[in-house]
Each structure stands twice: as structure tokens, then as C-alpha cells.
């Protein structure tokens, strides 16, 4: 059987984007892709904001090791009142490594926080090409460090922190798990000083700078919302001339992971659409985690393209997927 969109998801995307082919953006055109992604997500986000009074949003800042002032946005569901020693999540947004922001996605983040009734710290990491790897990951680590250090005043148990991200943010989250593991190996004598991650939730993660052109991927080409050209642009911006080369590390592209490097990573939940460019690299990553003894729940969502849940929130497919994600958000 040939691939096809989930009918409910297709109806929503056709209504939003129209049936006409969109103009092709040249490889390397970061600015147009930024404008297009913001234009896609901003109106969606506005419709998904949770009811007023259901979440408290507070901005904090931390200074990175290179002196950058980093925005950290704290989302606390009001149902928790004043939690004591509860869990929390560090979040990295999507955008192909080159686009997106906490500001644009705040309504969507807030909705997910309210749905799961768990607090979350969104890190407004710096984008490529203004910075290159591993800065998005080290920025995210700075956010994790800040949450670890301020856990008591926020009512968070520092031993109950996880990381979540979608698309590029899923790749950053996966690399952050590797980075945290490396920090513990370097500072094995001071385990309480280094923050820990108890779980990782990777939503259609962008993992591998060497994305292949297999027969399966060619079959889904007509359905791609994030194309091969988009992907090449994102990785080139992040890695420059090193993209696809032998010296790219797991902290820069988690899809470079081998079994030994994956040992000891936190348990994972991963989902990806059947019609997503990242499907095969995500399958490969799940296989590596399994061979390394890392617990992982994995779902391929039939008929779903990249970012499928953003617009089609009311579809049955999305609702089932969101239940699984929420279950894992509530699991630590």
C-alpha cells in the first residue's frame, strides 16, 4: 500500500496551507525559513493557549560560560499551587536549529504544561548560524544547571528532572542527555554538583546530520513538511563544513551515537510521524538505545507528517499520541 496522510490531519493542513505547491526555498536561505516557520506556528499557537489562570509564567535569566544572557521561561500549572519536591522538565523548542523561539511557542508550551500538570523550564537557546554546535546544547545545559541550583525555591526535586524537545529541540534534548552523562563521567567524585536527567522525551527528533536518501525516504518525499533542502540548510548552519564529516560528536548530532556511547543514558520516549524525514534516523537511534540497554518506548504515527500535532490537535491520531506523551511527562 502506498503512503497517505491521515485524513483528519490532511484536512487541517490543506485548510491552513492550501493545496497549491509552496515556493521552493533555496538551500542556505535561513531568513526565509525563519519567516516561514514563524508565520506557520504563530497563528497556531494563538489558538492553542490554555484558559487564563491555568498556568503561571515567570521569566528568569542565567549567564552562559561565554557571557550570554539566556532567557529561561518557567511554566507552573496553577493546579499544583506550591508543590514540594515535585518533578520538572527542561524544554528545547523546534525550528531546524535555525528558527523558532520560546516567545512564539509560549501558548503551545503552556497548553502542554496544563494538560500534563507538570512544571517546565523552556530554554531560549541561541540559533545557528549566529552560533554553531555545540552552543544550543551547552545553552540548554546552562538552563538545566540553573534549574538544579534553584530547585528548592521552585519546589522541584533535583533528582526528578527530565528533558523534552521536539524536532531540532528533540535532537538538542538527546544531545543534552549525552552531555550530562559526559559531565558525570568527568566529575565522578562530585555527583551531587552535576545535574542529572531521569528521562528524555524526544518528539520527532532531528538527530543525524547525515540523513540518508534511502528508498523509503524517497517514497515519502511528496509528504514532507520539513524537506531535505530544509534539513541540509539547518545542519549546514549548525556544523558548517564539518557536516557529514568524521569529527561530528554526539553532543553536536546525537544520531552519531554508537552502542557504547549510549550506555547509561536515561530512559526515553520517542515518537515520529510515518511521513517524516526523520523517521529512519529515529528508528536507528531507538535500535542503538535498545542494544545499549536503555529503556525506550517508541511510536511511529501512521499518516502523520512532521509537526503533525501542532495544527491537527483535535484529530484522533494526535489525541492518542498526546496521551502517551503526557503519561511520560508524569512519569518522574
UniProtKB/TrEMBL annotation:
One of its GO terms (molecular function) is hydrolase activity. Coiled coil: none annotated. Residues 90-309 form the Alpha/beta hydrolase fold-3 domain. InterPro entries: AB_hydrolase_3, AB_hydrolase_fold, GDXG_lipolytic_enzyme. Keywords: Hydrolase. Pfam families: Abhydrolase_3. The keyword Hydrolase applies. It comes from the Eukaryota. The keyword Hydrolase applies. This is Alpha/beta hydrolase fold-3 domain-containing protein.
